[in-house]
User: What shape does this take?
Amino acid sequence: MLSRTRISIWFFIGLSLLVNGGLILAAGVYEVANPPQHPVILFNLHASIWWGGLLFLLGIFYSYHFAPARAGDKQPSRPPAPRGDTHAEC
Amino acid sequence: MRALTAVYAATTLVHLSPVDIAIVVFYFALVLAIGLYLKGRTQTGEDFFLAGREMSAWIAGLSFLSANLGSLELMGWAAAAYQYGILATHWYWIGAIPAMLFLGLVMMPFYYISKTHSVPGYLKLRFGEPSRALAAISFAFMTVLMSGINMYSMALVMKVVLGWNINFSIWVSSLTVAVYVALGGLRSAIFNEVLQFVLIWAGALLVPILGLIDAGGWTALQLRIAHNASAEFTHLWSTLGSFSNNPMGIHWTGIVFGLGWVISFGYWTTDFLVVQRVLAAKDLRAAKMAPIIGAAFKMMVPFIVILPGLLALAVLPFKLTGETAALATGGHSYNEVLPLMLARYCGPGLLGLGITALMAGFMSGMAGNVSAFTTVWTYDIYRALIRTNASDKHYVDMGRWCTVLGVLISVGTAYLVMQFASIMDYVQALFATFIAPLFGTVLLGMLWKRTTSAGGFWGLLLGTLSSIGMWGWVKMDPSALRYVALSPHARFMAEDMYRALWSWMACVVVTVIVSYLTKPPAVAELTGLVYGVTPLPSEAHVAIYKRPAFWAVVIAVVFVALNVIFW
Assistant: This one.
């Protein structure tokens, strides 16, 4: 993460939450506008909207906070750390 | 088994919408992208087999737990909760937490300071080549077999739930795992396991939340279960005073000494599948913290696995049955409980994420098996016994090819399991009891400096043979279970517990006797390997809230409280 060539695992996780949350949120909104003929149990709680929205927000946070460019900008002149003594993954 | 899949092919539990399919496809694309990205960072043997030993405590801890969340873990224990009630939680709490804390606080320093690549590698350092060879060959064989069984379980679930062709499921998932592990080695497996861990929670957490709302809360859930099944289904300990008073037909001594001591400590402290993740930690403190972080999350897993099984008992308008009865009546089997609950509450998008969570669980378990197999094969069999003086690059290449080969063998095993369904039960039983004597050997080796090489080898060998012998005895004569499990009321779930206990005791007794009959090892040979002759780094300068022991105590207190609450 600290080297500009390294991407944090948390960035991949943020990306996953962002895309999945966005798709679920969009599907939830579509279902509210076009209610299904056979809704799931507790459809009235609109879990897709709040759960998808929560994942989407978490995805934005992690994708931004651990973005490769942002991490690289933070450490432009730091010399490479010796192997086994880095905190490269988080 | 073919008949089973043929019948299931006609009806599927859920139908995925385009949004669901997009989520599944994105998941596969992302794990492959991670593998491709990490290939450039995987050059040496240390990179490929030990992820460069640079993982933080959090990454190692989450990966440690995720590698254990395989197909049998997710689907199997949800089904067990439906069948046996909250007793299934013992496999997550007493059957895991004490052992994980013990690994972090007591055993990890010796694994880490010895700089071993693997658990068989530790046995080589402590007891010599014969013990390593025995442990490595057994582990490699059993691991690749388990990987195939996991693969087949996943393919069967995809067939049942989605109606996917079983060959398609097996090849797509296995090739995906083969590609990302072969490219990035253990680092890729660990990265993906952490991603899979997050997806498992994101996809599975809604079911218990919505289920509890649906059931009217925990108290209402208990009442409904008491009405639909039995009040015993919601008690952890109070029914274990007698074999005949609980749905599992097990006694508390089996749970405490068989599961909580031998099986649990054996699996969590000596099974290289999980220990490998912790060996990748960046320093000793991270290596000690990783299992403790894993234990904190392990304590919460029953919320997404056991609770859905209990909720199904309360809210489903029909009864689930065994597979044979489900086939005969056209109903649903216990193993379908998790997908059924997903389908009940999750609409488009959420359903895709839930299915992705199941697949992520299957693939993390499979990748864990394959990466552990690759390391043990390359370092403990190939380099130790076949080609001892090759270059580091040669061993990395061997690791990459071995990953592909391991997956292909697993695929072959998956097809073998299809022909002989009962192999699954046999291998699980053998696997569970193989690690019991291994635990005895490693424990004595680490904590008792008088243990000799001959004692370690013969204890491991005879302990394993005694386990296999008891298993064969009960298979040939089922009435022998009353002697192995000490009660005519014991059922099959009790068998593994007691067999593990006896085989562990056989290993310990043989090891001690042979050690006293042979020349003790020189103390100088034991430095870095054995308690009492290994200088351990002091933590006096570390703030108390940063010490592994502090967090271990916190988790132990929560663990005790949970057991009392659900007594």
In short: Residues 361 and 550 of chain B are 31 Å apart (CA to CA). The mean pLDDT of chain B is 86. Chain B has one domain: 2-37+47-432.
